[in-house]
């Protein structure tokens, strides 16, 4: 019997250590500089355990003692708080969108150290796209020689399988069963972690954004790809082979756009940036495919630009309202260009959600760096879930 149960006991012990290490490092992230005694109180762990984990994190280079000790009202040595050491390590981030790839370096607090946008000038074949992404990351690291990479996070829209590190299907890119983890890992020589961008951004919000501490979070991503992600109690729902969050073909009330699936009014074709920019070009507002040009036109007072952005935000609000009815999250984060950059668009979106629930709807916490953060957050989520697995080779 002991032979049968001992592997289970060892696995349970590993899970406990991983969970304890995670909550200690998350406490430093959220409250640092913070005394070890405070971490023990916040986490419910023993002071000895907290001291042990902090010593391990210090050896790994993840945390450091803060410069100024905190004095206590009593006698004895002052409490020396600990904080993240965000000067040493970075993670690489890769986000592949329809028009371009974003490569970035993020520090341990999820802040973008450097980023670069790589246009798909020669098409979207996955081999060259991922090779260029690796080259771009290499160039960023070369320009920041003091930063040591812990790994690379990759994010994209479409159907992305986290477990196998594969983009199963991304119709707009023409990708199918692309082994991203294998290909990008071969190019970079670093650990590569892969996930869908909506799920990645939920993790970014709960780690570094305004949804930190929320018990349940829904994220709605509206770009060329439209998808969603849902997290409860710090766990993002993936579903079998990470298919959760596929909302591209949900029907939108009042939708009129024909979809490739043969129906009319599917969510993605109604809300995509392609549709938005096509309407703006037809109205003579912009000449290209960049939705930020439409935002600038609206800022300059163009009434058609204002109307197009507000209509899209309003329809996004209808979609968010449908998901709210089903999932009832505490917080809804929306990544949509109008709601990010214009108060009137955010107000229109919230109005469609409904006055009773509009307060739970917020725009992304990363308005100027959402794609860079999406890629890096995939790797940072892995770090904060299991920080003791940091490779000694990175030290």
From TrEMBL:
Pfam families: ROK. InterPro entries: ATPase_NBD, ROK, WH-like_DNA-bd_sf, WH_DNA-bd_sf. SUPFAM superfamilies: Actin-like ATPase domain, Winged helix' DNA-binding domain. It comes from the Bacteria. Belongs to the ROK (NagC/XylR) family. This is ROK family protein. It comes from Streptomyces justiciae. The lineage of its organism: Bacteria, Bacillati, Actinomycetota, Actinomycetes, Kitasatosporales.
């Amino acid at each position: 019997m002991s032979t049968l149960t001992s592997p289970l006991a060892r696995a349970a012990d590993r899970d406990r250590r991983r969970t304890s290490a995670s909550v200690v490092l998350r406490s430093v992230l959220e409250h640092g500089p913070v005394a070890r005694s405070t971490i023990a109180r916040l986490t419910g762990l023993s002071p000895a355990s907290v001291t042990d984990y902090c010593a391990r994190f210090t050896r790994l280079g993840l945390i450091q003692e803060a410069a100024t000790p905190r004095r206590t009202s009593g006698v004895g040595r002052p409490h020396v708080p600990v904080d993240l050491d965000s000067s040493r390590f970075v993670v690489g981030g890769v986000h592949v969108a329809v028009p371009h790839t974003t490569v970035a370096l993020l520090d341990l607090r999820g802040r973008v150290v450097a980023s670069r946008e790589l246009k798909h000038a020669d098409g979207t074949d996955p081999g060259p796209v991922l090779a260029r992404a690796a080259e771009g990351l290499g160039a960023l690291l070369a320009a920041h020689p003091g930063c040591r990479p812990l790994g690379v996070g990759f994010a994209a829209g479409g159907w992305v399988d986290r477990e196998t590190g594969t983009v199963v299907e991304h119709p707009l890119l023409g990708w199918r069963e692309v082994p991203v983890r294998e290909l990008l890992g071969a190019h970079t020589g670093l650990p590569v972690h892969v996930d869908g961008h909506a799920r990645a951004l939920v993790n970014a919000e709960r780690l570094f954004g305004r949804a930190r501490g929320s018990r349940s979070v829904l994220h709605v991503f509206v770009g060329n790809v439209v998808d969603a992600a849902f997290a409860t109690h710090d766990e993002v729902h993936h579903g079998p082979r990470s298919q959760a969050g596929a909302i591209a073909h949900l029907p939108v009330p009042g939708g009129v756009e024909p979809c490739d699936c043969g129906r009319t009014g599917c969510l993605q074709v109604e809300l995509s940036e392609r549709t938005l920019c096509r309407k703006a070009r037809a109205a003579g507002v912009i000449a290209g495919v960049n939705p930020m040009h439409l935002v600038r036109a609206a800022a300059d007072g163009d009434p058609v630009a204002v109307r197009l952005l507000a209509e899209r935000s309003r329809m996004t609000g209808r979609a968010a309202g449908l998901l709210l009815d089903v999932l009832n999250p505490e917080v809804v984060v929306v990544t949509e260009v109008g709601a990010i950059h214009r108060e009137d668009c955010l107000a229109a979106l919230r109005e469609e959600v409904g006055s009773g629930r509009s307060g739970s709807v917020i725009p992304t916490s990363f308005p100027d760096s959402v794609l860079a953060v999406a890629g890096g957050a995939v790797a940072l989520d892995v770090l904060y879930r299991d920080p003791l697995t940091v490779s000694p080779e990175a030290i």
